[in-house]
Amino acid sequence: MAIVIDEEECVGCESCVELCPDVFAMDDDGEKAVVLAADSDADCVEEAIDSCPSEAISRS
After folding, report:
1. What separation in angstroms does the CA of 46 have from each of 18, 28, 41?
2. For the chain, what is the largest distance between any 2 Cα atoms, rounded to a whole number of angstroms?
3. How many structural domains is the chain composed of?
4. Phi and psi dihedrals of 3, rounded to 5?
5. Can you give the CATH number for the domain in which 11 is found?
6. What are the E-state strand segments in the chain?
7. pTM surpassing 0.85?
8. How many CA atoms lie less than 13 Å away from 30 in the CB half-sphere?
9. How many helices (H) and strands (E) does the chain have?
10. pLDDT for the residue numbered 35
11. pLDDT tens digits, residue range 24-54?
12. Which residue range is the domain that position 53 belongs to?
């Protein structure tokens, strides 16, 4: 299942980037998170999903 970020829900807190920098990054404007590796199975992905304050990260 691919990792997805709902751009409308993302508040740009950067917690996912801090927890899992190989999978998430901030966009060019530094306002929203983007997925770098949608098919990653890194252990930190679940922690990033659980820590997202706006629940913008999911797997689809």
Report:
1. 13, 24, 9
2. 27
3. 1
4. -85, 135
5. 3.30.70.20
6. 3-5, 24-26, 33-35, 57-59
7. yes
8. 0
9. 2, 4
10. 98
11. 999 999 999 999 999 999 999 999 999 999 9
12. 3-59
